[in-house]
Amino acid sequence: MTQISRRGRRVLLGFLLALTIINFIDRQTLSVLAPRLKDLFHLSNTDYGWIVAAFQFGMMAAEFPMGILMDRMGARFGLAFAVVWWSIATAAHALGGSVRTFALFRFWMGTGETANFSGGLKIIARWFPKNERTFAVGIFNSGTMIGSMIAPPLIVAISHFFGWRMAFVAPAVLGIAWAFGWRGFYRASAQEEREVDTAIAAPIPRTSDLLRARQTWALMLCRFLVGPVIQFYWYWLPDYLVTERGMTLAAVGAFSWLPFLAGDAGSLMGGWTADTLLKHGMAVSRARGVSMFAGAVLCLGSLAVVVAPSIPLALATISIVMFGHTFLSASMFASIGDMFPDSATGRVTGLSGLSGGLGGILFPLLTGYLVDHYSFAPAFVVAALLPLAGVAALFGLAPGLRPLSPR
């Protein structure tokens, strides 16, 4: 690993945190406005499920190509390109008016937003020492919750004063501004980044080597099972609170950020816990296992959401689930750097994200069907069980989280 100053690492992490916040404001805009847009354009829950699935399909289709872009061209160019690309797509939602147009723009946006994690995790694996990476991932990943927390009141306010179309345009402007700032700060050229990769990992693993490795498939299956759960809460929570709990859209904007605050705390605590265990001498795989299984157990709280007797108790239960999921995720993402060299993190993140995207396509479709034909209850049951299954799959297929052996 090539070293930079502690201050430089903090600034890099600040950029990644800001990027993730913007990303998840973009993502949440549609879900916050979903009750209004469903009424305005006469969309069913199944229609909405298809729109959400289109975004996930866009992410799935672009995960691996974006990972290749990060590994070959570097994060300076790769992230700037991706952010501008998805910001244009975000703004284009203002032109939507049907299932087809919203699905098209969501697909487009998904092809860009997938780069957030492949680029961010690559930067953390390169510039941060191993016993600081999980906390760095926790801070970086906390942007998912901060963005999700900011989005409801922000988007409700923008749509109230300026209309729903402007609620899509404003976050897009933030993304483009970030891209220009990133290009100015992160000055390492693509050639310099490739030289760093060559210096720290010889030989560089071929994609065929990655596809033959049990570690790759273990991560892919883990993200396939774990990823859709947080997406379920991102995309369906506002609609659940309005249709099943009787909250107004204004009340959703005022209170639905609370579970995301708990998720933010879980991301930071998960990263801090794993790094603290490592600094006290615990083996990497054991530290990851303790953190991930603890988070998965907390995710079982989804079973209690639909039977909670009041809105405050339902939100409190969802908050526990959010805390557990992000507590788990910090170590899940950091384990990529444990098992693979820096020169492969972009591609491995892309491959695991591809499988997560597949799960993200299937679960929204399943959720839409279940809600239209039954209720939200069976969807919450599935959401409760998936994280534990994903963590078990990771450690079952890749015991000890052993590093990939060079060929």
Compile the SSE list and pairings.
Blueprint: H1 6-41, H2 45-73, H3 75-92, H4 99-113, H5 115-127, H6 130-162, H7 164-185, H8 190-200, H9 207-212, H10 214-243, H11 249-255, H12 258-279, H13 284-299, H14 302-305, H15 311-339, H16 345-373, H17 377-397
The tally of beta strands, per DSSP, is: 0
Rounded to the nearest angstrom, the distance between the terminal CA atoms is 20 Å
What would the average pLDDT be, to the nearest integer? 83
| Subunit arrangement of the protein | single chain
Helix content: over 70%
Radius of gyration: 20 Å
Shape: globular
CATH architectural designation: Up-down Bundle
Number of helices: 17
Which secondary-structure class do the elements indicate?
Answer: mainly alpha
Largest sheet properties = none
In the predicted model, the low-confidence regions spanning at least 5 consecutive residues are: 188-202
